[in-house]
Amino acid sequence: MRDMSLPRHRPAQPQPTTGTRIGVCNLCEAICGIEVSVEDGAVTGIRGNVADPLSRGHICPKGVSMADIYTDPDRLRRPVRRIGRGADATWEEIGWEEALDLVADRLAATVDEHGRDSVGMYLGNPNAHSVGFGTHGTALVRSLKTRNKFSATSVDQMPHQLLAWQLYGHQLLMPIPDIDRTSYLLMLGANPMASNGSLMTVPDFPQRVRELKGRGGRLVVLDPRRTETAKVATEHHFVRPGSDVLVLLAMLQVLIADGLTDVPAYADGLEEVAALAADFTPERAAGPSGVPADTIRRLTHELAAADGAAVYGRMGVSTQGFGTVCQWAIQLLNLLTGNLDREGGVLFTEPAADAVGLRILGPGHFDVWQSRVRGLPEFAGELPVAALREEIETPGEGQIRAMLTIAGNPVLSTPDGRALAAAFDGLDFMAAIDIYVNETTRHADVILPPTTGLERDQYDLIFHAFAVRNTARWTPAVFAKDDEARHDWEIFAALAVRLQERLGVEPQRALLSYPPRQAISDLLDATGRTTMAELEAHPEGVDLGPLRPTMPERLQTEDKRIRMAPALVTDDLARVRAAFAVAPVPTGDQLLLIGRRHQRDCNSWLHNTERLTRGKPRHHLLMHPDDLRSRGIETGAVVTVTSRVGSVDVECAAADDMMPGVVSLPHGYGHQLPGVRLGRASEVVGVSINDLTDPLLLDVSGNAALNGVPVTVTLS
Ligand SMILES: Nc1nc2c(c(=O)[nH]1)N[C@H]1C(S)=C(S)[C@@H](COP(=O)(O)OP(=O)(O)OC[C@H]3O[C@@H](n4cnc5c(=O)[nH]c(N)nc54)[C@H](O)[C@@H]3O)O[C@H]1N2
Ligand SMILES: Nc1nc2c(c(=O)[nH]1)N[C@H]1C(S)=C(S)[C@@H](COP(=O)(O)OP(=O)(O)OC[C@H]3O[C@@H](n4cnc5c(=O)[nH]c(N)nc54)[C@H](O)[C@@H]3O)O[C@H]1N2
Ligand code: SF4
Ligand SMILES: [Mo]
């Protein structure tokens, strides 16, 4: 049910009234260029832009839905204040000045009374997709100076950033598979046919794989589900969730024992790595992982022999118990086979706006301080979001009493989300910068809504740096915002200045008048690879060429060398040994739960658009037919899935594509909470997988182990 107290807005007279404009889709990391056709102010079509040097005309169903976000009647267009709670809450619109003052007053008062850590912050995924956050978000974050800063990073790519800092000297300096020239791509725990790639900006993955196979190259996938990507691969192997670490260490062992290494002159520590990997043989990996020993040996030899090869691993090997060791082994497989910094291997990008070289973000640090309750390590100034709830609920010095969320929905996105929702209700004050009343922001006292994709300028500060080709693109807004709307950067700047004034810090007023275009222009000038003038003359994007060798100059370590065996990793091998010493496989009636993504889902949102929610339901618990049979469960039945933290009831479906002993639920569902104001979303069936994931299951980095969660499944 939509709350009628919430005024519904149609956009004010949009412009241009008729014509075709170049835009960009900011819904995933593929950053596709688009062409938007407009007639009489209404979007009549969105296509991929064939002139875009990176995306080459690619588009997926979500790109087309950029128009639905723009016209969405559920979307907030003015600040709102909540009156009442939960299902009975109503929302009233208030003016911008009043709303900003209210948020700044309450947050500053909390800091004054209880100290700077009493305000908590969650930064969600869409921030990475907005230039305004890149240029102005940090000022807001810094103005609060809280140690209780959390983000989607710790349910996502934290191990990658931690290792990028440890090995290459900067948290954002990650080598990218040279997919357009490689002859061998070994992929673990990633499904780019659905996700369109991550930490590998690779628009049009399907076509690039066709090209790879067309030139005789191979794609090998290791995944507990025969995914859409596994189905287009030349080879797929099931691997038991959480056990990849044994397979990857065994590959290192084979590589070294069989004399297949080709170590670059700027890397140190081969002997140490050899000693560490020595007893992780393929035979030891085979039982727990389900990958036969001879397969592990063969894949290792193929990798070493290939003329340009890349190993790549994503969510499935990051958000699991050994995410850091897995990602370390992946980096080392590339390094030791001589594929780092090699055409057709993995290479560093040379972005036109270089967040790494220009130190827009610091290089990183780890465990400099710890979370108050559980003593979990910070990484680069943020704490694991799995600790957020206890930091709100546990009394004492430093307890979180007020929250600010920015573009985040942690109730659906982080472990034990249901309990986190209850914790939010206990706060003194909560504010959100968000475009919807969703499962998280319904707890906020005030919501400040920014403009969205088609109404704002865009430059992909983050994703150009992870792209399979060096390109740059500045995209002016397709539609001018209406007078009363605010861009996110305007909200960040206005709130930062207000907080600085109230907290006795010199206010950075210049922020308010320095739009992202100017900031990006300055960054482009600093590297000199292109200019704002050139980008404005080429709105389709400017091609800066394929990835090139840059080593060791591009290294950000002080001595321009790579230390291959950092203590953080070598220490964690003890945990690996212990984990697989006793019970290599789940016992009894236990199954291991993993997540999944669908091409037409977008994390926790966009379930209110007709375009993306029609068609076959896709919320089922997928289960191997043998696992159903042994429990006497028919496909389609409603089952109860139970983990340590809770249980959910959901329909199941038999799927030969699942590894026996493994079950899968999509993430981002579970919209049936009272008070959620999202048209169709509340009718979209499906439960939240994060009502089952466990905040106590963590990688050494603090990243949540969202995959490989032990569950039982019974007939409801
Ligand atoms: N179990 C399980 N959990 C997961 C995952 C998984 O695979 N399995 N994946 C994890 C990953 S990789 C991620 S990145 C997180 C994502 O989780 P979150 O960080 O929560 O991000 P989203 O769900 O993408 O978006 C959150 C909200 O941002 C708002 N929003 C959208 N666009 C904008 C905008 O332009 N500005 C503002 N201010 N708000 C906007 C919308 O209301 C949306 O609901 O989820 C994680 N959670
Ligand atoms: N359509 C769509 N696209 C998206 C998103 C979306 O929600 N929808 N979200 C975006 C975001 S925020 C991100 S971070 C990226 C993520 O991009 P990907 O990482 O490519 O996406 P996932 O589908 O989460 O892929 C994880 C894979 O790991 C497998 N897996 C689970 N556990 C294990 C394990 O222990 N070992 C191995 N080897 N595999 C395992 C799963 O079966 C799954 O196939 O996608 C982005 N793109
Ligand atoms: S692949 Fe990603 S960037 Fe491209 S249209 Fe789809 S959602 Fe948008
Ligand atoms: Mo993500």
Describe this structure in words.
InterPro entries: MoPterin_dinucl-bd_dom (IPR006657), Mopterin_OxRdtase (IPR006656), Mopterin_OxRdtase_4Fe-4S_dom (IPR006963), Prok_Mopterin_Oxidored (IPR050612). The chain has 716 residues and is of the alpha/beta class. It folds into 3 domains: 80-156 and 355-545, Rossmann fold, CATH 3.40.50.740; 160-351 and 563-570, Dimethylsulfoxide Reductase, domain 2 (3-Layer(aba) Sandwich); 583-715, Barwin-like endoglucanases (Beta Barrel). Strands 5-4-19-18-17-6-7 form a 7-stranded mixed beta sheet, with helices on one face. Strands 23-27-24-26-25-28 form a 6-stranded mixed β-barrel. The chain has a 4-stranded parallel beta sheet with strand order 11-10-9-13, sandwiched between helices. Bound molecules: ligand MGD (2 copies), iron/sulfur cluster and molybdenum atom. Residues 28-29, 125, 156, 188-192, 194-196, 198, 222-225, 227, 239, 241-242, 244, 314-317, 320, 594-599, 601-603, 707-708 line the site of one ligand MGD.
